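Before the break, one more example. Copy the sequence into your notebook; we will annotate it together after we see the structure.
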Amino acid sequence: MEKPFYKKTAFKIILAVLLAVVPVIVISAAGAVLLREKHFDADSRTAADTSVHGALNDSQDESDTHTAQPSVLHDDSSGTPAGNDANAARQANSYGSAVSNTQNRPWLDGSSDARQDEDAVVDDSDSPEPSETPGQNSSKDAEEEQQMASKISVLVNTGSGSGTDKVAYLTFDDGPSRSITPAILDVLMEEGIKATFFVVGRKGVDDIYQRILDEGHEIGNHSYSHVYSKLYNADDIQPFIDDVESLHDFIQDGFGYTMVSFRFPGGAMGRRAAIVEPRAVVLTVMGYRCYDWNVITGDADNRQWDKSAEALTANVLDNTRGRAKLIVLMHDSGDKATTLEALPYIIEGLRDQGYQFDVLLNYE
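Here is what the structure looks like once it is written out:
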């Protein structure tokens, strides 16, 4: 009788081989799968770590741009820098790449299209910006805004300097203009007074820029364009930096003069601290001192309908309040004829109140 197939020697040999080989194959395959999964997990973790670190770095960059602590602050009592080298180094790292950007400067290639016409009227309103909708910000946001405002009060001078000598700093914004600035310079020369002109970029008035300097007045940076939407973009500080550097280069290259005083177009204190604070820090890093004002003629205040010379004069002389330091805001753009008319009376009235006159370069 023939043996069943499973009892034959040949079958036993084949079965033994299969039992020996198959487990090895299975184990090897399982090991390969596990190894591949291990590598996949490692690669995933690496990618995830890279993504997280990148996000953290981006978040840090964003934080540095918008909420960096000021490193070089101007002490109103002394006019000298405060802070330490470590803070200055951190601040330079935060803003260095932005400040070094030299794009968007058409005059460097001979073009002057970016400069405004000599008597063009800019948006020179000194009225505060509309308040945000009540309840729009959380209490935390309001607290952060208040903290930033406190920093700005240190970064932006408003006439609270040291000393008891009564000094008035006459300042003129938004010029020069062909129709008004030369006449203002005539009045200042006749009165023997030096003033500070916060200028913008204008065409066809290079001789007036030069005359301001030749007669011993100070030129301050008021931005090149004076375009609020460009300067105060909440999402991007770089256009502001480019614009400030644009005027710096225009005055430096064209007239050999280095500006050290800056005034925010429309002023700093009427704007949200979250907009002003990072810009004020950048300006400090760039070597500027920032100035608002504590007395105003109202010649560019949209809330004041009476812009007669009498009204402008009264706005100044009735609001000195015995301050030791006055920073007087006026404008010399092409439509400010009553400012020119009021100027001699403002000077006379301030002298009667015991004030001397100086440029902001000497502010203490």
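Residues 3-7, 32-113, 127-138 have pLDDT under 50 and may be disordered. The radius of gyration is 34 Å. Try to locate both features in your own notes.
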